[in-house]
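ARCHIVE CARD
SHELF: 3
SLOT: left
DATA:
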Amino acid sequence: MNITTFQARFIVTLSALVFGVIALFYFYTEGLSNIYGDGISHLNIARKVVDSSSTSLWERYVQLGSPWLPLQHLLMLPLVWQDFLWRSGLAGSIVSLAAYVLSVLLFFEIGSLLGAEEGTSKQRSVSSGFAAATLLCLNPSLIYLQTTPMSEPLFICAAAATVCSLMYWVERRTRRALLTSAAIAAISTLTRYEAWSLLPGGFLAIVLLQQGKRRIVDALIWAAISSLGLLYWLWHNFAIYSNPLEFLTGYYSARGIFARQSEFLGWSDFASGSLLLSLGIALLASAACCGTLSVIVALFTLCRAVAKLFSEGLNRRPRLSVALLLTLPFSFTVYGLMSGNIQIYPLSAIALLNVRYGIGLLLLLCGLVGIWHSRQLFLVSVLVLGQYFWMCRYGYKELAVVQEPLRNSVYTREARARSYLEEYLRRHPPKKKVLICGGDRTILHAGLHYRDVKLFYDTAQGLDLEGVETIVVVEGDALWRELSKRPLEGFICIYRVGPRPEIAVWERLYRLSTVSER
């Protein structure tokens, strides 16, 4: 039975939606959909925009802050204002689910276009599209991540949309298709920094694939429009922090956090300056997210694609030339490791740190699978899907992308201490306003609202206790360091948990209170 492209799109979209919803229900009921510390921070950033006590639009806007790019936070705004969706994390999960479903459809498009170029059809190869969509849809790590408020599913969607739109431009060579592709690329740069690597790649692809006098003009138009997102982000950082590179060098940048925590994270910086070590770490992270066999298949597919391109030429394989752009985000991760801007530790037996960055290999694997012919395509799909099932042999909780937040954010001594604090604050709502260190997950889990909270970010801002009725301090954070410089007068400790870390709640002295300890 022949299936039309429209029917295939419907089947792919519906299947992805069903898988996504079932996975979200499962991980949410297991209490696993909102355990990443970064995911909670994404939710809190969006919530601060709608929950600010200020009526100034600018004061609300600056809550987007830095260094995380803003698109995911903006997409959560229509949902995060609702308390249940915010505190449960579903406001972010819904965005990730939608991105996941759209990503599967986009990879169907990429696979079908690329497969048609390999075969006799001039338009589509449904089998190649199904293979690309299936390998993305059933990846266990992505199935989990699309239930979380993390930014990886949205980035995969944006990268796929950028490449897919360039493939449509290759087909049509119209100015409208070019402008559409450039606009999509600009939006994608506001998801994750890996998407920035697509800009020079897209510019070069247009220069090489366009013909005639329009070559340079079209490439410059595409570059100018696609760079708008990047330029906006530079302005955003300058307008708020007077430093356009605040996202790269600022206090809360990955580089700044690593510098402050080098005594704990120094071991993870061993790949810095070494291309081979950086590549090895990135491949190990990819194996943790996709399976070792999947990595081998992806690399072999890449080698085959490059060989085809060199032997037959760019102009005879324009769709393949564009599809190869999906290798750039993985290359960007390798560069980030080599330059010391990111750290990854992917060995589950020792430690897990940022292992989810390896999910970028899916772009390469699913984007290029269409180069295989029918029997080869079937074999490749069976090998990769078999690897996926092997990854889940001990259950979903044993996946590296699930184990990472469990080990780093749930099973730690600090996490247990914070859970006691959050339980206490839910049972004994603190008097407003509450002074607490900025970014604290306690705000989300303890029933607090940002309009009733006074955030403390770093010691440089100074300590202002005016209007503060309650102070929540965690050993080691910026507020704890500031309070350790002087005695806290006019407050009494009403709750303490610890030690290591010690967490305390203080209230104004004129309230009759008793100290509770755990």
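SLOT: right
DATA:
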Amino acid sequence: MIQRQTQDFVFWREKYRVDEADHEFLYEFLADAGTPQTLETLTYQIIERRCAQEDARIRKELSRGLIYDPQESYKVGDELVFSAYGFRLAKVVDVRPGENPEHGEFDVMRVRFADNGKERQFAARLQTPHKLNRSGDDDLFATADLLSVDELFEEVGADVAATIQQHLQEQTDYFINAGTRWLTTDQMVPVNVGHLNIAEAAIDVNERPMTTTALLELVELDDVASPEVLAFSLETALSQDDRFVEVGLGGETAWFLTRLMPPAAMEIPPLLRCEPESYDRSLLDVELLQAEWELNDEWTEGGLSEGATSALKSASVHVIFPHWVSGTLPLSPSVRMLIPDSTGKASLITLVDGRWGKRFDVWVVHEGRYIAGLSEWYKSHKLPVGARVILERSSNENEIVIDFKPLRSRRDWIRMVRVEDERLTFVMSRQQMGCEYDDHLAIGLTDVDSVLALGERVREQDKTVPELVEQIMPELVKLSPQGTAHVKTLYSAVNLLRRTPPAPIFAALTQLPTATDTGSGYWNL
């Protein structure tokens, strides 16, 4: 069977480039389609086209002459096709006896290639085995062992797509995109400054994001084009204007004004930026892994799979300091499954206060893995660090009920943090607590600004997680008569200064020379 180049993963991943013929094909395909096409669709079409082209070329070349087979005999004047040389055509110009006892009697023929006139020598009438020998009427076009276009796309589609995307982005005179969809520049409907000014005014008056469909009804573009092209043209113009930002709204693409976006929805606050730090995960035993799972941190490796959480009707998370002070809620794996899929910089959803029934808008920042806009809600209900927040699906896909479990107001012993000599110290103090919370995570604050200032210096000095664990753990064990501290408490305390998931903190703890596991998540020094 013929070895096709298109069946070679290395070709697609390392050697494939968009040539002039591919360029023209992409342009014509988009022009004929008449609607914007995704990069994935274009990639599939290129792979399918290349496979069909190669098959047609091979058939054409093989029809021009005999297929070279070392077992066969040939004479001067015969025209042969050499499959090992890209099915190039050559003519036999000389035949002589071969001289090699290992092969017995055979011929050596000299051939001249038709494309460049160069000559080479090949064996003929060869009796010993050779990789180019054919067995009887072998079908050169047997497809039983060939990968289909679908299989090739699954294996190399991402690599080919990256190559095609780079080409399209470089050819701005011919192609234009809005997100992952592409169109030719000739198909675009003109969108002028006046159209964009109308869109800005409409969003400003609405005070909420507006979908592309809603904006199209107001800006009145040339309606000769299809609705898909009209929407694409407007979205492209909006994306190129700094006044607008693409957001999600109920699963649809929508647009909002940059100047109206809350800062936390446009840029991840420093307190919530999780900088990866290498650690040895094998240091975490079953107990530490269980604690990691219970904490449900949004930056934990892996987390719950979509299949396991898609049926969830509710989820709960505990609010640690970085989220509490930023007015955000962690987009943990379980919470993520309650949020509608969306595109854009952020997506707008509505939360319904389970206590008072009040509705308020918040922004889901998928890249930062948090929900922004809960500062007032935290303050109005006086929720502390460590509070357990519950989210539940509602009948409206774009609305989620947010609640907490109230407790009869009582004074509990809580760890209070303060900054002394550029370090965190802790004392136990009775504080009024009116909601369900995790005792291990709860931390009281009397001077938030000093903690924030210390955290900023820690980040500027780029202190490592092991350094923070080494500083903080001795302060925590002082609070207990048994001289122990829980790993969850250490996690909450480290996150006062640096946003870090549990695993690197736990791994650093196991590396402290004096640290000892006393069981049930407690450690001493």
